[in-house]
Amino acid sequence: MLGVGAVVFREGSVLLIERGQPPLEGYWTLPGGMVEVGERLETAVAREVLEETGLHVRPTAVAEIFQRIMHDEDGRTEYHYVIIDYLCELEGGTLAAASDVADAAWVPVVELDKWKMAPGTPPVIARALELMK
Questions:
Q1: pLDDT of residue 22
Q2: Residue 39: predicted pLDDT
Q3: What pLDDT, in 10s, does the model give residues 82-96?
Q4: Which is the most buried residue in 54, 60, 84, 133, by most CB within 10 A?
Q5: To the nearest 10°, the Cα dihedral for 47, 48, 50, 51?
Q6: What confidence score (pLDDT) does residue 3 get?
Q7: CA dist 48 to 17, 31, 73, 119, 122, Å?
């Protein structure tokens, strides 16, 4: 399945959402979701961020492309996502958790290690920070 995510920075913080549904329910990660058939990647990431957080963003660069493969208790592949994460600029809106999101927050980058984050999220944030330099 093809998904997109957004890395959005503001004043030393990064935008994170707490997943409200499986997989990774209860973990904090980047906002994003599935690309709809016929939808451009950049359109999908902006739509997903708006649906999940109420914020308007503009994708500016690909930060990372990775696979998330998750297995069930019998070791069979339950989820296989290819996720394209975009570095995005904040354009407006009011932060509010919506859609399948339990919560949304601006998290100071220096405090990321204190949050229950989904595997793979911290390296994507680090890569996006490098791109901004």
A1: 85
A2: 98
A3: 999 999 999 999 999
A4: 84
A5: 110
A6: 97
A7: 12, 7, 30, 20, 20
* Strand 101-108, strand 55-71: pairing: unpaired
| 53 touches 96 (CB < 8 A) | yes
Q: What is the pLDDT of residue 70?
A: 87
SS3 128: helix
Residue 28 makes CB contacts below 8 A (sequence gap 6+) with 16, 17, 18, 19, 105, 107, 115, 116, 117, 118, 121
Residue spans of the domains in the chain: they are: 2-132
Residues of the chain with pLDDT under 50: none
CATH number of 2-132: 3.90.79.10
Rounded CA separation 52/34 (Å): 12
Q: Which two tokens stand for residue 16?
A: 């994170």
The structure's pTM equals 0.92
Could you give phi then psi for residue 22, rounded to 5 degrees?
A: -65, 155
Q: Determine the 3-state secondary structure of 122 from DSSP.
A: helix
DSSP state of 118: P
